[in-house]
Backbone:
C-alpha cells in the first residue's frame, strides 16, 4: 500500500466557515443543514408511511405478507420501494456526512457498527 491510500480525506463543508447561533449555541451551517434535512425526512417518511396507499401497503406487508396480498396489496412492489428509499437515503446521508468525517476506514467502520446497533434495537419491537 502506498502512503496516499492510508491518508483520510475530508470534503469541504457546505457554506464553509458560516456559524449560526441557535439558542446560545454556535453551530456550523453544515450541522444546521444536516439537522433540517433529517427533520424533513423524518416528517416526510411518517406522512408517506401513514397517509399514502403505498406506505400503508408496505406496513401491512411487514405485519403479514400473505394477508396483505389477499387484501390487494403488492408486497413485492412495496419491498422494491423500501429498498429504493433506503438506498436513496443512504446516499444522501453519505453526502451529508462526508464533510464531517474524514473518508478513512476507521471512522466509517465505527459509524457502521453504530448504525447496525441502532437497527438491532429498532427491530426489537418486532419480536415481542
Residues:
Amino acid at each position: 500500500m502506498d502512503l496516499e491510500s492510508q491518508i483520510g480525506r475530508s470534503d469541504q463543508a457546505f457554506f464553509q466557515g458560516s456559524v449560526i447561533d441557535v439558542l446560545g449555541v454556535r453551530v456550523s451551517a453544515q450541522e444546521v443543514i444536516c439537522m433540517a434535512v433529517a427533520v424533513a425526512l423524518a416528517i416526510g417518511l411518517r406522512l408517506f408511511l401513514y397517509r399514502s396507499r403505498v406506505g400503508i401497503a408496505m406496513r401491512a406487508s411487514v405485519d403479514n405478507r400473505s394477508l396483505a396480498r389477499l387484501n390487494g396489496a403488492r408486497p413485492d412492489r412495496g419491498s422494491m420501494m423500501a429498498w429504493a428509499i433506503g438506498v436513496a437515503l443512504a446516499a444522501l446521508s453519505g453526502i451529508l456526512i462526508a464533510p464531517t468525517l474524514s473518508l478513512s476506514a476507521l471512522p466509517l467502520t465505527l459509524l457502521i457498527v453504530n448504525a447496525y446497533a441502532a437497527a438491532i434495537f429498532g427491530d426489537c419491537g418486532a419480536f415481542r
The CA atoms of residues 20 and 26 lie 6 Å apart. Residues 14-127 form one domain. Strands lie at 19-22, 25-28. The first helix runs from residue 3 to 6.
